[in-house]
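[Protein data]
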Amino acid sequence: MSENNNMNDSFERFFKEKADEYDIIYNEADWEKLEGRLNALDKQRVIAKRRFLAGAAIFLIFSLFGYFTYSNYMKINQLEQQLSNQTVQPIPQNSGTGIVQNNDSQNLGNKSGNTIAENNMASSGETSQTLPPKDIAEDDKPVESSAEFSITENESRNLFIADLSNSKLALSSFDQQSTVDPETIEPAETSGKAPVFAARVDASSNDVGLNSGIQNASQRFSVGFLMAPDFSTAGSFSDFYSPGYKFGAYVEYHFTRNLGISAGIIHSTVRYTAQGGEYRPPEGYWTNGIIPAETLAECMLLDIPITLKYNFFHFDRSRFYATAGVSSYVMLSEEYEFDYYGNESGLAQSWSGKTGTRHWASNAAFSIGFEYDINSTLSLRAEPFIRVPLKEVGWGNVRLYSLGSFISLNYKFD
């Protein structure tokens, strides 16, 4: 028993001596580094959540695009079906007059005798009043040709235009490229009404089908008001911070039905993070040359884009388009906060100022959009965009990336 107690005491002394040899000294810098890593993990979780929300929003936008595309495709098929139903063979001019022709043939002798007698009396200077026989039935009387079947070519064309209006076809879709062969204009079937003429239009032309719509070729100018969320970052398309916003206006001029140019001015609030050397203030600013691990930025600026717009796919009341151009940034105010791994005293913690610096053609601008015509002058647009840096901007000389989706209301006029 005593031997077991002595053995336990020896083991206890052994572990106590070994524990006293390793005296761990508390180091505050190590704990601060660990805290910084934990904060970075929390930010990564927040960024992953925001990416998920951004992906869901983009999926929703393209789902709406698909719905409008399918809806317009069905409308186009219905219009083409209506056109094909209206293009039929003409009715013979004497249709429905067979009884009249039989009665006329039966009374041919009477008509001839009366005519000869009238001519003889006229040659002899005598006058006489010829009354129709009382025994002729009302059905045997000659029926005058109906005026509704005696129309000129101009009247038939007017009826054709009226029929298109009743069929809710937009006349503005027949622009300068419209070609209708007069030989293909044929009267359509009617019952007791004036014949309606329909034109056979090639579906591959720009008049009816995929390239038709409310948009008028004479509407050269348009103005619009837009807004959008803004996701920005520095250095690359990663580590997106809290979203900002954009709102502004633009003016657009159309050279042709598909090609146009636009310019605008957009007020933007941009929030982003820059890691390490991605943020480069004027030389000598960092205390003792110690660069912060992360920079948090919030800037207000004017975004001035100049872009070319091309409509590459048309539907009845809508179209897809793409834009490309350059954008200039005018910095209004800049605020920055610096985060270090350690907590050494005397290091720069923040900077702010109203700089007003101008960075012309600092970013390339690209977008793909969808436009839906509400009526002949108003339209709605949804336009996902991207800004890629061409040069550094701001007091920190960062290469700023941005993406988002414009929603705009557009007004067209001559």
The longest helix spans residues 28-86. The first strand starts at residue 186 and ends at 188.
